[in-house]
Amino acid sequence: MRIILPAALVLAFIAAVSAGAVKIDFFSMSEMERNILFDVRLPRVVLAGLVGAALALSGVLFQYVMKNPLADSFTTGVSASSAMGAVIAIMLGLMPYIPLFALAGGIAGLYLVYRIASYRGRIQPITMLLAGIVLSTFASATISFMKFLSDDAVSSIIFWLMGGFQAATPLKDLILFAVICFSFLSVRGDYLKLDILCFDDTTASSTGVDVNRLRKKLFFAAALLTAFSVGYAGIIGFVGLIIPHILRLGNLVKASYLLPASLTGGAAFMMATDLVARTILQGGQELPVGVITSSIGGVFFLYLLIKRRKELFYFN
């Protein structure tokens, strides 16, 4: 797996850069092809990889926080609150400031969930999950209401909510790369603590792990990754669930393997998915990336549900 993932990332990058509405031959590029490659294709492919890496890493971190392999940015409400902030920017006609509004919405949602889930200075994972579901429901209802009120911007809102990388720029790539580096390095020294946290809070505390402080760090790092990803690419679901689950099936369960592998696997997956979105339709039309990831995620988890249904029905 250590060799497969980097190889998959390199292959996905090469395929995504060379293929598209205009096929690029690196050995004999025209002036137009060079402009397409450096001004459009490369920033988009890089942003796709970075968003995939950010979402996969945030999914893993949320799963450690909640001790639930099915937790991700949606179950904590961060994605929905970020999307609500972005929709407000679209309604106000402030398109260049969508990432800032999404970040503000994500931080507001993060703070609300954190305050609800905190009791006497400690985070309660179950309460956090319930608070995230409530926040997601409220944010979705608010977005629907704003779409109802704004006839002129409703098409832009719907298209943005389906996710995509059309608005990629080198500056966005650089900012998201810095956010990923900051988030990853902030938790890189906690691999052993993360493995211990998988048992239970009592065991982790008895070994000297400050469980509450560790959860706070993971929660804020994951929320930061999600907010920037949503701000730059819209709603792209299931990446934080699919990639970590596949890696665990491949026996990458230790944090020292799982976190770096999630970055690589998420980037390769999203580059490949964006390539499919750009090439599956004729005439240069594109499918929203979020539609493809949701379809893959739905089929993937339906397969897991059918394959493991005997393990789920544990009541006799």
Sum this structure up briefly.
The protein is mostly helical and about 325 residues long.
Top keywords for this entry?
about 325 residues; mainly alpha; ABC transporter involved in vitamin B12 uptake, BtuC; two-stranded antiparallel sheet; 14 helices; about 75% helix; about 0% strand; globular; disordered C terminus
Question: What share of residues is helical?
Answer: over 70%
In total, the number of domains comes to 1
Query: What is the annotated CATH architecture?
Result: Orthogonal Bundle
Assign the CATH superfamily: ABC transporter involved in vitamin B12 uptake, BtuC
Broad CATH class? Mainly Alpha
User: How much strand?
Assistant: under 5%
Specify the overall morphology: globular
Mean pLDDT: 85
What structural class should be given to the helix and strand makeup? mainly alpha
Span of the ends, CA to CA? 39 Å
Descriptive notes:
The protein is mainly alpha-helical. It has one domain (4-312): ABC transporter involved in vitamin B12 uptake, BtuC (Orthogonal Bundle), CATH 1.10.3470. 73% of the residues lie in helices and 1% in strands. The chain contains 14 helices and two strands. The protein has helices at residues 4-18, 31-66, 78-91, 98-117, 125-149, 154-161, 170-188, 191-197, 201-206, 211-233, 239-249, 255-279, 289-307, 309-312; strands at residues 118-119, 122-123. Strands 1-2 form a two-stranded antiparallel ribbon. The protein is globular, with a radius of gyration of 20 Å. 44% of the residues are buried.
